[in-house]
Structures are given as C-alpha cells and as structure tokens.
C-alpha cells in the first residue's frame, strides 16, 4: 500500500466512524459516541503525522480526500445538533449540583454543623 493510499484509507475510516458517531448521537448512545470519538481522535493523530508533509499525486486523489473531509465535517455539524442540548443539560445539572454543594457548605459553616 502506498503512503497516499494509506492516507485516503485513514480518511475513509474516519468518515465511516463519523457516520457511526452520528448514528450513536441520533440514538442517544452517549457511551458509544464517546468511544467512537476516541477512535477518531487516534486516527486523526495518525493523519497529523503522515499527511502534513505528503505530496498529492493527482487531482483524483485531492478530489477524494476533499469528499471524505466534507463528509466528516457534515457529520460533525449534524452530531453537534444532538450533543449540544445534551451538553447544555449536563452543564446545567453540574451547575445545580455545584450550587447545592456551596449552599450546604455555607449552611454547615454558618450553623456549626
């Protein structure tokens, strides 16, 4: 396998995983989504090392690479539509828990508990 094919294969794998991530987000499968995101992060790190100095053999290669990147970015935008409300709920929950903790601490301090 040539380095160029390896790069395209890696982009292709990320594109498949981003589709799986979108499916997980649509189905509220947050644990699965997180695991897939970690897989994508590892693949992206690989790409950063091998693709930064790569030369591009032809227009077809660049076209395919662009198509894969566009799919990944489109999936990411769609995933955000599902994860942002979940993240906002989580932040609100954590904010409420933090506020409750502070109130308990203040009450315990003020009342010698």
Tell me about this structure.
This protein is mainly alpha-helical. The chain has a domain at 3-79: Methane Monooxygenase Hydroxylase, Chain G, domain 1, CATH 1.20.58. Helix content is 87%, strand content 0%. Helix 1 crosses helix 3 (59-110). The radius of gyration is 21 Å and the shape is elongated. The mean pLDDT is 86.
Supply the key terms.
87% helix, 113 residues, elongated, Methane Monooxygenase Hydroxylase, Chain G, domain 1, mainly alpha
The separation of the N and C termini measures: 69 Å
Shape: elongated
CATH fold topology of the domain at 3-79: Methane Monooxygenase Hydroxylase, Chain G, domain 1
**Can you write the helix and strand succession as a string?**
HHH
Sequence stretches where pLDDT stays below 50 over 5 or more residues: none
Major beta sheet summary: none
Average pLDDT figure: 86
| Secondary structure category | mainly alpha
List the helices and strands and how they pair.
Layout lengths: L2 H24 L3 H22 L7 H52 L3
Produce a short descriptive summary.
Helix content is 87%, strand content 0%. With 113 residues, the chain is mostly helical. The protein has a domain at 3-79: Up-down Bundle (Methane Monooxygenase Hydroxylase, Chain G, domain 1), CATH 1.20.58.
């Amino acid at each position: 396998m040539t380095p160029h094919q390896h790069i395209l294969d890696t982009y292709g794998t990320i594109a498949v995983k981003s589709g799986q991530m979108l499916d997980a987000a649509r189905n509220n499968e947050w644990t699965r989504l997180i695991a897939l995101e970690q897989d994508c992060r590892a693949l992206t790190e690989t790409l950063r090392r091998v693709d930064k100095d790569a030369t591009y053999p032809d227009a077809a290669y660049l076209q395919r690479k662009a198509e894969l990147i566009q799919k990944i970015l489109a999936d990411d935008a769609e995933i955000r539509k599902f994860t942002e409300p979940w993240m906002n709920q989580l932040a609100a929950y954590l904010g409420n828990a933090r506020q409750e903790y502070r109130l308990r601490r203040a009450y315990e301090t003020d009342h010698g508990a």
